[in-house]
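so my prof wants the structure for this chain in the tokens format not the other one, which i didnt know existed until like an hour ago. anyway here's the sequence
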Amino acid sequence: NLFVEGGVVPVSAPLAVGDSIEVLGGATLPLNRPTTVGGMVVVRSGATVNHGANADADLNKGVTNSLDLAVGGDMVVEPGVAFTVRGMGAPKGLVSGSGSAGSGSGAGHGGTGSDAGSPAMMRPCYDAIKRPRMVGSGYSGKGGGAVKLTVGGTLFLDSAIDAEGAHINAQYSGSGGSIWITCRKLVGCGDLDADGGRTHNNL
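here's what i got, hopefully its the right format
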């Protein structure tokens, strides 16, 4: 078993855990590379699960931090967990849906970005609707990150999974990221959020 008891414990290379993982309150687990767990995963109240920010240089080299977790058994996410990759996606100009400089157009992802009153400036869609894997695109703010959960048993989800674009006190934020969940059964009251980022008009 792997117990994450406190501090920040990043996963920076592919990781395989034969049994189970438990993330205790006060601990942060950034899953930057694919992680496979043979047993179950339990994330306790007060814990944080995320992935690292995507820097310009990393994306230019084709390296993207994203949360890709495969669990053989059940996964439990208790209430009060910060399961968030908000604003952890791409900055301006590094993904095809990025907002356009000087045009006032917003970033796109699963849908087109705003056209600022000019259809010619509409930012394109990218990624797959049914199996989304990519981070959101940015402009003034970064896009949202990417979460993929594959759970062999039941996913007990009682906290939100947040892949929104960054919330900024400016115009033209980034697009939402992606959330892809495959499980035998999904129960709980947690939300799934991959909206575009809020701006100064609606913070």
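also thought this was worth mentioning. The first strand starts at residue 2 and ends at 4.
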